[in-house]
Amino acid sequence: MLIDLHIHEKTYSLGSRMSLEEIINEAKFKGLDAVCITDHENNDIKNKAEEISRKMNYPVFVGFEFLTSDGDIITLGIDEVPQEEMTAQEFIDLVDSKGGVCISAHPYRNNNRGLEDKLKIVNKLHGIEVFNGRTDDLNNKKAFDVAKELNIQGIGSSDAHSVENVGKFATLLPFKVESIDDLIKAIKSNKCKPAIYKDGKYIIVEK
């Protein structure tokens, strides 16, 4: 099952230009099986996402992207967005205590929002974005190499803010998921693989 785990929708992400309906239509066109909306410090789209998911008969999961004092982390499985500043490890520990998952977003992007080499000292990360649609090839490769070194599974995500970038990168899950709990189990299996959209199809990237 192919999913884009990191997308921003325009209602709560000011930098995005896409409605949820546009995201789903593009995801279907590219052959994705599901999408995940991860707005910055916000998961208020949850009710709307459930409604549109049913209406369009397409799986939409909701998490959020949280800026820790060390860098951005994508999370699934936590209902409330923390209001206080937290280090990466504090946030990961909080999510872990609630049974959720954490993925390092664009760790080496040159915007001071990635964990960078702190990847090597934090514990309990469930994935590292080794292909991020808004990060250059060199820094994606750096993330890929570190994920391999640390034996943490690589994740592919578009980080899309515009329709044409939806699904630029994706993640192959080891089994079909139908709920957020299923998605969390799939990520925790440590059997996910990143995928690249090229020439109208997805290419799965092995370690």
Q: Taking all residues together, what is the mean pLDDT?
A: 97
Which strand order spans the largest sheet, edge to edge or round the barrel?
3-2-1-9-10-11
The number of distinct helices, counting runs of at least 4 residues, comes to 5
Order of helices and strands: EHEHEEEHEEHEEHEE
Give the uncertain stretches in residue-range form.
none
Strand content: 15-25%
Structural class: alpha/beta
Helix content: 25-40%
Oligomerization: single chain
Shape: globular
Biggest β-sheet description: 6 strands, mixed
- DSSP strand count: 11
**Could you tell me how far the N terminus lies from the C terminus, measured between alpha carbons in angstroms?**
18 Å
Rg is 15 Å
What does this structure look like?
This protein is 27% helix and 24% strand. It contains 5 helices and 11 strands; from the N terminus they run E-H-E-H-E-E-E-H-E-E-H-E-E-H-E-E. The strands form 2 sheets. It has a 6-stranded mixed beta sheet with strand order 3-2-1-9-10-11. The two termini are 18 Å apart. The radius of gyration is 15 Å and the shape is globular. The chain is of the alpha/beta class. The mean pLDDT is 97.
